Amino acid sequence: MSISESLDLAGRSSEIIVSAFEVYTRRFRSITRLARRHFERRDWHAAQRESSRRLDLYNDTVNAGLESLRALLEDKIESRPLWTAIRAAYQQRLGDRRDDDLAETFFNSITRRIFHTIGVDPAVEFVIPASPYVGAFGRPWSLTESFEREGRDVDLYRRVLEHYRFAADYDDLDGDAARIAGMVASELDGRQVRGLELARAVFYRNKGAYIVGKLHTDRDDMPFVLALTNPEGRIVVDAVLLTADEVSIVFSFARSYFLVEMDSAREMVEFLHSIMPRKPIAELYIAVGCNKHGKTELYRSLLNHLRKTDERFEVAPGQRGMVMCVFTLPGFDVVFKVLRDRFDYPKTVTHREVLERYRLVFRHDRAGRLVDAQQFEHLAFHRRRFSEALLGELLSAASETVRLEGEHVVIGHLFTERRLRPLDIYLRETGPAAAHEAVIDYGQALKDLAATNIFPGDMLLKNFGVSRHGRLIFYDYDELCLLTDCNFRVLPEACSDFEELAQEPWYYVGERDIFPQEFRSFLGLEGELLDAFLDAHGELLDVEFWRRMQDMHHRGDVLDVFPYRDSRRLRRGSPAVHRHPEEPKA
Ligand SMILES: Nc1ncnc2c1ncn2[C@@H]1O[C@H](COP(=O)(O)OP(=O)(O)OP(=O)(O)O)[C@@H](O)[C@H]1O
Ligand SMILES: [Mg+2]
After folding, report:
1. What's the confidence (pLDDT) of residue 502?
2. Phi then psi for 439, rounded to 5 degrees?
3. Contacts of 79 (CB under 8 A, 6+ apart)
4. 205 by DSSP, 3-state: which?
5. Alpha-carbon span 180 to 158, nearest angstrom
6. Ligand 1 binding pocket, CB closer than 6 Å
7. How confident is the model at residue 13 (pLDDT cuts 50, 70, 90)?
8. 65, 20 in Cβ contact below 8 A?
9. Backbone φ/ψ region at 410: left (φ over 0), alpha (ψ -120 to 50), beta
10. Spatial CB neighbours of 356, under 8 Å, sequence gap ≥ 6
């Protein structure tokens, strides 16, 4: 191939990738734009359908781009010198686009499929961003709207609500403005409100819509989020959130991704980061639906961490899994999960089924109770980065996935998740009050999952973790299934002593049969904690509870578990059309 031929091919290839990326962006935006209408029309089924459809776009457009590249490049598709030229041409073509971060990740997705790159390959990938992302945007933000206070605080909030108009009217605009003012006043502690700076675009997810930004006072800035609902065709301001922790729970890694219109994901992430400085950049990208680029950011922060420390990967604290080898780095808040070659008795799932269940979780409403998992392929780390015990375990128990190549440990496939404190450990190490709270939230987690049609399967303490905010989150998906696929049964009564004393059940148990009465012994709680659990959540041991939930899902009801405390709601006592984590049992 002559130099000019190769430059020409590189130019045309880069054009193909740019246009595939633009198709992706265009479709992503058009689905995102629909969210507003679904909210206004209360079309919750469409909202859920479209948000899973958006998750498919990435792979679809990467595949389409690859197909065109194969047709163009034929047997030259694996020529590395050519790809180095394509990379340069692509970078030039991107120029100073505001979405070059996402565009670079898109390029990497393509080349990783072609080369099955182990580790990273700077010649054909964007390992280090071409320009530094975070901190790149000067203030003022181009995506926000500012509201100065003129007159009374309540007028400020009224102006805000008037600004964010929907096709459905506010149920009680003046009343809501007054209630917002009241809620804010109780948090001000003598400070004066100066104004608000709010993202112009509204964030949508499930049945909720969120106006997100900050409140400026004479002394400092406070996070400011209005949670809107549409219970009966009229818009209600359901809650006001005013702390970084509260807002952080709204943007949790255990929630589905938001639909929010944005010109530049990077600027949006920076703006959100200025509100929630503790939340990792990777998680913010993921929260606004740019999960692939979130992965890139996560990987970069991992490399950074390894560069800055000499920490080694170690077996994660807690009980060893039968399906997964789980490991972590002490100073990095993430766990890595590798599938074992074989699963011990009594596990009967296959590898494919485990992957399918992780996929189910990825696409389903996670209700703030299922940790988000990212998948990586072909990672490579120096072997000295692994503790002896961990390396021994990976090479013997996960030899189909993990191998040594020279001085490197190559991992064919793994999941990453945010690291939580396993509940079994947490209950042993924490004081009685915190343990009590955790156990109550554990029952609530089971109910929230049931409300979103998820049955966790293996509900032992070791499979739940406690987050930084003290929230209970489930992470073991190999036995998880839809609630509507389960058969909840009452335990048959034994007719003879012989039956009663039998080790194995003497009655027939189908694969999907579940006996809620047995949960008591499954839970692994004792004494006071068991009593507390039963007091608050005794109905979980009752077949009726589960069947009622199933009926609801069969009817097609969509429940949303809202990401804030009841005490933050503005109209407490008004009939709740959805359940809240802290709401008393209906
Ligand atoms: N996100 C997480 N944060 C902290 N620890 C975790 C996390 N995920 C898993 N672990 C730890 O790793 C162990 C095994 O993980 P997990 O339960 O996902 O695997 P498994 O093989 O499916 O387990 P099981 O044998 O219960 O089916 C857990 O018991 C827990 O101690
Ligand atoms: Mg487990």
Report:
1. 66
2. -70, -35
3. 73
4. strand
5. 9
6. 316, 318-319, 321-324, 326, 335, 371, 417, 419-420, 422, 458, 462-463, 465, 475-476, 478
7. very high
8. yes
9. beta
10. none
